[in-house]
Design brief:
The chain is α+β, with helices and mostly antiparallel strands and 81 residues long. Strands 1-2-3 form a three-stranded mixed sheet.
């Protein structure tokens, strides 16, 4: 799963008390969990390994291209020159 692919589930506080292992397994799987009570959001649990992902140096190499005329004057501003 890429770090920008966020999977989110909603769980009630009562479900967490009844099945804490299921709650923890969701987080271990990288799922963001919204905790609700009485139809109101109480909290959002985010897996730490998903939130602290660090970019790898050079991972964007070759993906960004700068045009050779990127600093050429724009035709839209010709009347101001």
């Amino acid at each position: 799963m890429r770090q920008w692919d966020v999977i989110m589930v909603t769980i009630t506080a009562e479900q967490i008390v009844a099945e804490p292992d299921a709650f923890i397994k969701q987080l271990e799987a990288g799922v963001e969990v919204v905790i609700v009570s009485n139809s109101e959001s109480l909290a959002r649990a985010i897996p730490t390994h998903a939130a602290t992902g660090r970019p790898l140096y050079g991972s964007s190499s070759g993906k960004i291209v700068i045009s050779s005329d990127f600093d050429a004057p724009l035709d839209d501003f010709a009347e101001y020159q």
